[in-house]
Amino acid sequence: MRTVFVRLLLHLTVAVVLITLLVGALVYRYTTVMLKEEVLGANTELLAQTRKIVEQALGEVQQMATSLAINTDVQKSVWLPWNLEEEYHFLQNTGNLFSERIHSSNYLHSIYLYSSINNKLISPSGIMDLTDFPNREPLREFIEGRETMSWGAGRWPDERNSSDSVLRFYFSVPLNHMEKKGVLLVHLKEDVLYNAVVNTNNRKLGNVAILNSEGEVLSYKDKSMLLHPFADTDIEQIRTEKTGSFVEKIGGKSMLVSYLTSDFNGWIYVTLNPYQEVFKRSNDIIRITLLISLLGLALGVALMVLVSRNYYKPVRRMVHALSNHLERPFTKALHRDEFSYISESIDHLFNENEEFKTKFYNSELVLREHALIHLLSGSPSGSEELKRQLAYYGIPLQPEHFIVIVLRLYLDEEPERAEPEEKLRNLIHFQVRMLCEETMAAYGSGVYIPQFHKQDVMIMNTGTWGDREQTVNKAKELAFQVKRNVTTQLPEASLTIGIGGSYRSLGEICLSYNEAVEVLLYERFTGTGSILSIHDLHINYMNRNRFMNFRQWVDKAVNELKIGRLDASLAAKDELIRQLVGDSALGLHHKNLILNGLLHALMTVRAEMLTGREGEEEDDGLVYEFAKLQSLEDIRLWFDKVFARTADALQDKREYKNVELIGKLVSHIQANFREPLSLQMLADLTYMNSQYLSKLFKEVTGQTFMDYLTYIRLQEAYRLLKESSLGINEIAAASGFGQKQNLIRTIKKHTGLTPTEYRKRYAIERLNGEKSKIDTDPIH
């Protein structure tokens, strides 16, 4: 049998090859990055030095142009008309001045002065019309533009029918005049300036190029390479980032382009380095690394063969010994290699003892879990008995210093079924236990108790954790690690963790457990997946002003509900909950206290509204429902429903009270209509606003107060006219109208008759035996 030996050799070989490739890749990457940073650093230094030299030269040109612009002869050449028939020394002086400046500088190619009054140009070589000037188009663009100075590049024809590369500088004369009367043109020798930069840097800098802000080439050793080298996106990147690098194909070759943008005039300075040459040393290094690794691999394989053969001999002897002791050895088809053969042989020899071992072990596990449950439940057993149980069942807990951590596990349920399959749930619980026990081992001794009252529990020894504050911080760190490991390994699971207090003796473990369970009640404020500690409940203290602010929102919500403004009441309630969520300095205990205060205020309103056993039972149900809510969003929606039900009940009660009140007022009117009555008198009698009382009266009776009072008085006046012989003045006084004119006007308005006519018609109709047609209520 050589299967184990061969497999081991192959595994080791593959491992060494993978390690070699990984090391080579890391070395190559490191070398490439290092070389790139070195090249980019050198290029940045080079570009900065080049920019400094060029800007110094350009600055000198601008200073020279400024001094020329204020020269008296130059000013005369701009402002005065040129009459060449007369003697004008200022034109000759201007040309000589330009000639002196050109001969005093290696960079200057030529100087011209354009006068818009004469539409001509003057230079050391003479005077020419604008139409004969080679670069008249750029000059016209500058004259028409708003800039007072501008830089550019172009070609200038020479005597050999060829052209020179020049840098153009346009300078307005006078400088700050609204209208450009003249323009000073200075041409620089681009190749001389470029060579000066190369010589100053004292190295081969032929790859430095100067571009304007639009990406056009101003200066370079080979402009044909950079006619259209960069895309618009590259130029935009250069403008935005000011300095940096990118890789671009130029002339069919990949080039590493480093760039630097000048703040002086917006010109762009770039260097071009062949990409392959930059990283040539990286390729050489990786070749050497791979060669050394291959030599090491060959030597390692040889050593593995030698060492593995020596270690394989004891395994082979064990296989022969087992084969000799088995009555019926296994066939080769039943095992894959030597180790599986050894395992199956040992299983066969000790198979009879396994059943007994399993039963005994399961019994020990049950008793062990029972002892742990006693610790959490507060068993009356003495301290010594508890220590004895820890020792007997091998529970890895020290006899002093404990803290309890309770885990509440949530699983993401699939929408098509109410709950995960039982097997899947059990598997997830088992994985959570394994992850928690692995994390606990890094923090000291402790035990894990699964599914105690549907929650998992961890009991940790804290004797080595330090003082009380350090112990609390260590417990939070452990809880955080447990949560991170579980959520990383099991994305479908989430944990809310409660941490109890730190206690000294075994008998106090139940106290820490109860505190951990208690703190989980505050999960509604922090949400699923939070870590809560009993030590954090009272850490944040509420000052009186903050408490009064929350109390004001509670009072506002309840008061708005009392007066029937449900929308305003709900808005106040939502603002209260919003402030609770945003107040990170407020402790969980105080948040719970404030929400319970809102519930109690609501129940007080309901107690005033509902009476009897039915109302008490409903309020008891509210307390039970509120205790089961799991989040602030659930609490907000629950309060919406309760507020709406309470508002409907209050509205019903108001309507009932309104009907009762108006009924009493109607009875008062019917009993006292003969007396002077007014709406304000009734309002004062009921302690109500007169307008609001008028509205209620109209809603209940369908009539206004004055219409109803008039109706009652008219009925009495009709009766007296029909049944008595009293005079009109007496009837007006007896029916409440007071004066005779009021009675006459009101009856005529409703019947079209005077009181006397009404009495006569009624008498005639009665004599004729006809039923009176006006004996009905005129108002109705």
From TrEMBL:
<keyword id="KW-0805">Transcription regulation</keyword>
<dbReference type="Pfam" id="PF12833">
    <property type="entry name" value="HTH_18"/>
</dbReference>
<keyword id="KW-0812">Transmembrane</keyword>
<dbReference type="InterPro" id="IPR009057">
    <property type="entry name" value="Homeodomain-like_sf"/>
</dbReference>
<dbReference type="InterPro" id="IPR041522">
    <property type="entry name" value="CdaR_GGDEF"/>
</dbReference>
<feature type="transmembrane region" description="Helical">
    <location>
        <begin position="285"/>
        <end position="307"/>
    </location>
</feature>
<keyword id="KW-0472">Membrane</keyword>
<keyword id="KW-1133">Transmembrane helix</keyword>
<protein>
    <submittedName>
        <fullName>Helix-turn-helix domain-containing protein</fullName>
    </submittedName>
</protein>
<dbReference type="Pfam" id="PF02743">
    <property type="entry name" value="dCache_1"/>
</dbReference>
<keyword id="KW-0238">DNA-binding</keyword>
<dbReference type="Pfam" id="PF17853">
    <property type="entry name" value="GGDEF_2"/>
</dbReference>
<dbReference type="InterPro" id="IPR018060">
    <property type="entry name" value="HTH_AraC"/>
</dbReference>
<feature type="domain" description="HTH araC/xylS-type">
    <location>
        <begin position="663"/>
        <end position="761"/>
    </location>
</feature>
<dbReference type="InterPro" id="IPR033479">
    <property type="entry name" value="dCache_1"/>
</dbReference>
<keyword id="KW-1003">Cell membrane</keyword>
<keyword id="KW-0804">Transcription</keyword>
